[in-house]
Amino acid sequence: MFLDYVKIFIKAGNGGNGAVSFHREKYVPNGGPDGGDGGNGGNVVFVADKNLNNLVDFKFKKHFRAENGANGAGRNCTGKSGEDLIIKVPVGTVVKDTRTDAVVADLFEDGERFVALTGGRGGKGNARFTHAQRQAPGFSQLGETTEERQVTLELKTIADVGLVGFPNVGKSTLLSVLTSARPKIANYHFTTINPNLGVVQMFDDSFVIADIPGLIEGASEGAGLGHYFLRHIERVRLIVHVVDVSGSEGRNPYDDYLKIRAELAAHSEKLAETPEIIVASKIDLIPDSADEAVEKLRKATGKEVYAVSSVTHKGLDELLKVMKQKVDELPPPSRTEVDESAALEERSDQKFTVTRLPDGAFLVDGGLVDFLIQNVTISSPDSFAFFQKVLKDRGVIDELKRKGMKEGDTVVISDLEFEWMD
């Protein structure tokens, strides 16, 4: 089974909770608070692996979660941090945020790593909240809770040359005689149902050829099988357009050429501009009229046409030389452009908004509020004092006053209501 497009869910580990603990030991009258911090949650990391060639491992498993951080403990013991979750994907895998369809990573080289989600921060233990006025804090922080995200994994083959054309025009046979690849070959449409890669070895140099499953008219809109694999030729330096000039399928070679060109253009303007050479295949089936058929295609397209027979190997040496020359002249395969402004996670625990409600109350909302509600115990005087201090230090009080808050006004923070006293 070949799979090159999947959607999965990933989640970084939650941070461990900080501990509330007080040192209790004989002959130590003033042990004081000794609650340790919680451990950080594990990250979710994608790693490119050259030994993988498709995304079939994600066919049945859709949810991936990193390990949570352990809770802190007494004696200032910090909880163990969660293990990172390593997800191996084939080289050439593009990672997208499913919600926005923005590209967040392109794992282009073997061993390349991408930290998709960062584990939650561990909460602070009560030992971290001591100061001269608060010598025995009875509260601690909870660990940061992370959110599950959905990502799209899309495999785009990294090859120098891409073979394109209608089904059964001889692409797979050509690949097999030019390289050591052994694709499935038979005389029926859609023999090739997934991209095949082969390496051409020329002296001390080499280049990679990808055989793309046959396209048909309407492929860019979902017709046939080839439309699933158009993405695999987006990176190639050179397109080798294979045309059956023998007419063995009862089609006109020039019409075939125009239809495939139209499908490439409909899929991507960049793809339509990729350098191309035309290969007239199966000339062994029309030995008496091969030259005439090739010349006719050359005049119709206005481009150079290379006549080959994969059966008799005629014209293959010349084709290889031309392909190698083009590959050397053209720039190497490029990465998919990553949206630098896109991110799977948003750290917003410093942000807040203040809104005046129709009844005159003031609503404080945003990531800072979520952070406070998660980490503050309102029933604890020490914890509530910390809550008030954060509101002042982060500018919430100043913003409320700027919006017109006066003594006696109601302030709503999450599901809590307070009456402001100046």
Secondary-structure map:
Layout lengths: L4 E7 L32 E6 L13 E3 L19 E6 L2 E5 L4 E6 L5 E5 L31 E7 L5 E4 L6 H8 L17 E7 L2 E7 L26 E7 L8 H15 L1 H4 L3 E6 L8 H12 L3 E3 L8 H14 L23 E4 L5 E4 L1 H9 L5 H13 L2 H7 L7 E4 L2 E4 L3
Write structural notes for this entry.
- The chain is α/β, with parallel strands linked by helices and 422 residues long.
- Helix content is 19%, strand content 23%.
- The chain has helices spanning 171-178, 253-267, 269-272, 290-301, 316-329, 367-375, 381-393, 396-402, and strands at residues 5-11, 44-49, 63-65, 85-90, 93-97, 102-107, 113-117, 149-155, 161-164, 196-202, 205-211, 238-244, 276-281, 305-307, 353-356, 362-365, 410-413, 416-419.
- The strands form four sheets. Strands 10-11-9-12-13-14 form a six-stranded mixed beta sheet, sandwiched between helices.
- The radius of gyration is 32 Å and the shape is elongated.
- Mean pLDDT is 83; it is low at 185-192 and 218-226.
Q: What is the strand tally?
A: 18
Q: Summarize the amount of helix as a percent range.
A: 10-25%
Determine Rg (CA atoms, Å).
32 Å
Order of the strands making up the biggest sheet:
10-11-9-12-13-14
What structural class results from the helix and strand content?
Answer: alpha/beta
What profile does the largest beta sheet have?
Answer: 6 strands, mixed
Beta-strand percentage range: 15-25%
What is the 3D shape?
Answer: elongated
How far apart lie the N and C ends?
A: 69 Å
Q: Which H/E pattern describes the elements?
A: EEEEEEEEEHEEEHHEHEHEEHHHEE
Mean pLDDT: 83
Quickly count the helices. Answer: 8
Unreliable stretches, pLDDT < 50, 5 or more residues?
185-192, 218-226
